[in-house]
Design goal:
- The protein is of the alpha/beta class.
- Helix 4 (131-141) links the parallel strand 5 (113-119) and strand 6 (144-147).
- The model has no long low-confidence stretch (mean pLDDT 92).
- It has helices at residues 20-29, 67-77, 96-108, 131-141, 156-167, and strands spanning 5-14, 42-50, 55-63, 80-88, 113-119, 144-147.
- The protein is globular.
- The chain starts with a strand and ends with a helix.
- It has a single domain (5-167), classed as Rossmann fold (3-Layer(aba) Sandwich).
Length: 169
């Protein structure tokens, strides 16, 4: 392993309370906290990932969702190369965010890599969105889909690793 470090900016996008901050906390710190604190503006985390012949340093921008994003979010996307766009599997209304945020990202970064996460997969009883409908939409938007759970850790690492892998291809 040589000492080469490549730094890439990625954004987490999605409506309020879909679990963006929880996904980042699970990935970066390996923990889950069920106290909800709304992100105001942007919070930036850093996570190094060892690749075959270099270290990929992910700068993960956690952006406020909903109306806050509409006001200032687009300016935060500049310089990003990829986004993890998140919906809440128990709230079908958050699925509209997939198209909204994908469109916002593509306006600023036309060839951005997009990974779509359906979060809160651990809440099987409350689940309101099927993998099939999600995959169909994501295919139209030009990305990859995964179920995730920030609470249990299910496929959180995989989502970020997939992003890292696509960033370095």
């Amino acid at each position: 392993m040589n000492g080469r470090v490549v730094q890439k900016k990625i954004c987490l996008l999605g409506d309020f309370a879909v679990g963006k901050t929880s996904l980042i906390r699970r990935f970066v710190e390996g923990r889950f906290d069920d106290r909800y604190l709304s992100t105001i503006g942007v919070k930036i985390s850093r996570k190094p990932i060892d690749m075959a012949d270099f270290t990929l340093n992910l700068l993960i921008w956690d952006l406020a969702g909903g109306d806050d994003f509409s006001k200032t979010g687009a300016s935060y996307l500049r310089g990003a190369v990829a986004a993890l766009i998140v919906c809440d599997l128990t709230r079908p209304d958050t699925l509209a965010g997939y198209e909204f945020y994908a469109h916002q990202m593509r306006q600023i970064v036309p060839d951005a890599i997009l990974i779509f996460a359906g979060n809160k997969a651990d809440l099987t009883e409350e689940r309101a969105l099927s993998v099939e409908e999600l995959q169909t939409l994501v295919q139209q938007l030009g990305g990859t889909y995964l179920d995730t759970s920030a609470k249990s850790g299910y496929q959180v690492e995989k989502a970020f690793q997939l992003l890292a892998q696509q960033l370095t291809e």
